[in-house]
Amino acid sequence: MLKISTRGQYALMTMEVLAEQDGNSYVPMKKISHRQNLSVKYLEQILIQLGKAGLVEGLRGNNGGYRLTKPVSEYTVGEILRAMEGDLAPRGSSAGKAFKTCGNESFWSGFEKALNDYVDSVTLDKIVETTRENNAYMFYI
Question: Which long-range contacts (CB under 8 A, 24 or more apart) does 15-19 make?
Fold first, then answer.
């Protein structure tokens, strides 16, 4: 079963928080942590991985924090999830060998292509836009 881990889900939410900010300013880790109700240690692990993938950059010091490395519209959900999850194949790597002999390899290849095409077609700016639209309908008493 294809399952996106909580790390992958939180990475996407972290990228969304950074995307909502001014692209030139750094967002402190404590602010991101508070906004997502995550421990700083757990968030730090996520940000390190996103940094290694070149998706965010960090700055230490009083005005430090994290920011995106490129315009929001250039990020895809696929690249963010792959930074955390690795390959998004809907089956194990050894399963492909077994399925080739069963004749259903074309199904799995097509499924994998559809999955990857979808996550690569959704950009981070679209996620931010959808969240803003949905939050416009929410109110609290």
Answer: 15/50, 15/55, 15/56, 15/68, 15/75, 15/80, 15/124, 16/124, 16/127, 16/128, 16/131, 18/56, 18/66, 18/67, 18/68, 19/68, 19/72, 19/75, 19/124, 19/125, 19/127, 19/128
